Amino acid sequence: MLDKVLDAKLQTWMQRVRSELDLPVRLTLWNGTHYDLGSFERPRVSLRINDVGAIGAFLDPSLDTLGEAYVREQIDIDGNVIDIVDVAYKLASLSALSAGSARFAGKLMRKFAHTKSEDKAAIQYHYDVSNDFYRLWLDSRMVYSCGYFEYGLETLDEAQEKKIDLILSKIRLRRGHTLLDIGCGWGALVIRAAQRFRTHCVGITLSERQYDLALERVREAQVADRVEIRLQDYRDVTGKFDRITSVGMFEHVGRDNLEAYFARIQSLLTDNGVAMNHGITSTDADSDDSPLGGGSFIDKYVFPAGELPHLSLAVKAMQSGGLEPLDVENLRRHYVRTLEHWTGRFEAHAQRIREMVGETKYRIWRVYLAGCAHAFAVDNVSIFQIVCQKSRQPASVIPWSRRYMCR
Fold first, then answer.
1. Confidence at residue 117, expressed as pLDDT on a 0 to 100 scale
2. Where in the chain are all domains bearing CATH 3.30.1050?
3. Which of 148, 268, 322, 401 could form a disulfide with 162 if both were Cys (CB 3.0 to 4.6 A apart)?
4. Distance (Å, rounded) from C-alpha 110 to C-alpha 307?
5. Domain 4-105, CATH among 2.60.40, 3.90.105, 3.30.1490, 3.30.1050
6. Which residues form the active site (predicted)?
7. pLDDT grade, residue 124 (50/70/90)?
């Protein structure tokens, strides 16, 4: 039984949810008592509170507190994961509006040191879960970044191949070029570049499991004479490269280190070289945290020390680092579709994933993937590809139009 004060608070909260949100949710307490949070005949989401301590997560909810209660198995949720995330966002938004606009905006601006050892530990925490884990829900190339849906009807495999080819077109890759891929993942981009253009490629990663599988895939693709995979920090790379790509990497650099990061890319480029940065950005003009506590949950459970800059900060840091932006493209819509594919595959393999990584990690990744799909869909976060070259190059080296990107 609930004490009178807590029961009164719960009843008041449920009444407000019913009147302002009318959610398709059935809420069940640990004692079997259930309440409907809307007027729907058949609720689409079933939510069970397993112990009295979890009630606080609902009386003043954020995406962080709700996600943590789910991960710790204080609550159980059944239903379509898209509906579940939609409900979580609505509950958190209602609470945030009550608390004031500052909380709604999520003004946290966390800072991290981003030393080499700390960055390596953060990368390995996220990417070294298991290659088999990622293989279950990524495409066959295991490309862990936003795909490119030219028509919107492509399969995930087709979209990821088109994304890689779009990048190679944007940087105007040619036979005989040298290419550095910073954060090469499991090697898909450098393998494709070597196969299509016979370029000499170097791919670097801090994930040992990515490194091992990328080496294996390079050998299987028979491009080992043209592709080198290194377990290496970008700050330790030396030499010159005609082309540099960075896909899903600068989110790990840190806002305060962006200028140095782009300056490093600038120093590694040949004078007539071209680089491209593909990365997730904050949609808060001050580069503050994503709203409603979503960023806090991701920092805690998914991407330790991740920091998202606003597009304006990324471009400013790029120019301060000695690079001239040539082309900027928003791929937010494409990431929504990519995440929908990943979420669908993840849900389809739910039992296998539970057996592989355990209930806690299963729950973390389940809400993370679906939550990210929602965040991109409503413009809480975005993603941009920025093509650049060294500053103060002759204007004659810049193509007249963007037509070359669409070959």
1. 66
2. 4-105
3. 148
4. 8
5. 3.30.1050
6. 372
7. low
Q: Note if 372 is an active site residue.
A: yes
Task: Give residue 27's pLDDT.
Answer: 94
Give the list of residues 6+ apart from residue 119 with CB closer than 8 angstroms, or none. Answer: 206, 233, 252, 305
Active-site residue identified among 184, 372, 388, 406: 372
Beta strands 25-28 and 45-49: pairing type? parallel
Distance (Å, rounded) from C-alpha 49 to C-alpha 202? 51
Core vs surface per residue 228-247: b (16+ CB within 10 A) or e: ebbeebbeebeeebbbbbbb
| Domain formed by 116-406, architecture | 3-Layer(aba) Sandwich (3.40)
Q: How many H-runs (helices) and E-runs (strands) does the chain carry? A: 16, 11
For CATH 3.40.50.150, list the domain ranges present in the chain: 116-406
For residue 19, give both structure tokens.
């009147």
Matching residue, tokens 């070029």: 177
pLDDT in tens, 297-331: 888 888 777 789 999 999 999 999 999 999 999 99
